[in-house]
Design a protein that fits this description.
- The strands form three sheets. The chain has a seven-stranded mixed β-sheet. It has a two-stranded antiparallel ribbon with strand order 6-7.
- Helix 12 packs across helix 13 (264-270).
- The chain is an alpha+beta fold.
- It has helices spanning 4-19, 29-36, 52-62, 109-114, 141-147, 157-160, 163-175, 181-192, 201-212, 217-226, 230-233, 249-259, 264-270, 275-290, 300-309, 325-330, 335-350, 357-364, and strands at residues 24-27, 42-47, 64-69, 74-79, 84-89, 91-94, 103-106, 124-126, 135-136, 149-150, 178-179.
- It contains 18 helices and eleven strands.
Length: 365
Amino acid sequence: MIPRKHKEWLQAIGKYADKLGLKAWVVGGAVRDFYMGKDTKDLDLTFEGSPESVAGFCVRTWGGEKRKFSQFNTYRVTLANGLKLDLVQARKETYARPGALPQVTPSDIKDDLFRRDFTANAWALSISPKNFGASYDPFGAQKAIDKGIIKILHERSFSDDPTRLYRAARFMGRFGWTAERKTARLMLDASREEYPFILSRERVRQEFIKVLEEKKLHEVFGVLEQYELLPYVYPGLKWADVITKGKSVEAKLGICACLLGASGPEFLLHLHLGKELTHELLGAWNVVDTQKSPLSALTPLQESVIRAMCPGLKHTALEPCFIKGRDLRDMGMNGRKISSAMERFSKLQWAGRIVNREQALSFLE
């Protein structure tokens, strides 16, 4: 099942781990994608023991860099060829309260698979030399994939980690799967009991960005609407075909803000995107909301959001207003008269009635 292009270096990692006395597996979504014949460049590797030395071996052998997440004894290795590896110690997780980050203790591969979100992702393939490629599927991952269902591993799954609700929606939309009956009921229960409110805005933002990265975005939004999960991202948020016109996640966020109308700025601020990006998207929202040509040059991101929301605009509509404040001051205007005149000219330019500075100055005279 392990693709040929991954086999050589996974064998090398398995041999090195074996020398250290570590059992090693490739696990989770990578195994699911291997089985479904889908390409993946993000692989999860699990070891019964610390993966620190293995992470160093990977960087020494193939180049790249590693980063440690000490709380979970996890190493993220980005290889020079673009592959991304998460190397973790097999562990058991407990949650002090719903929505909290898990408390972890070292354990074995079965416990490590049981902590995962859905049965389809609770699958491991050995990369140890003695049984390379051997399948370990204690919870029926292959059966779930064959049936096309999402099924949680235990009843506390969504209360332990409400981000799993959004992950379920992504998988269901991406693969055309449906939720197993009990899982579907627990998803609706979790939504109606407002479990997503437990999450920080940062974690909600991360999940929504992952949603916007999906290729089958309409289908994912459909699942989110079915299970009443979109209001936790922001009230009033819903699907519109124009969202697919965004060429980047950032552009899609800007389009969502514009679709929310007067609530757009609050939506962007609640996502905690960072000061610069928020300011940039607010600028695009303002142009769409006011239907006026901007006073200063737009960024490529701003222009892509505006053109998605307002197709058919003349290119001059998005150029900085042809009339400047100094032109009006030279005519003896001041204060409110300047701001009123600037607003009028920017609206005329937006509407295509003024298409160059010469025409604007003539109109002004």
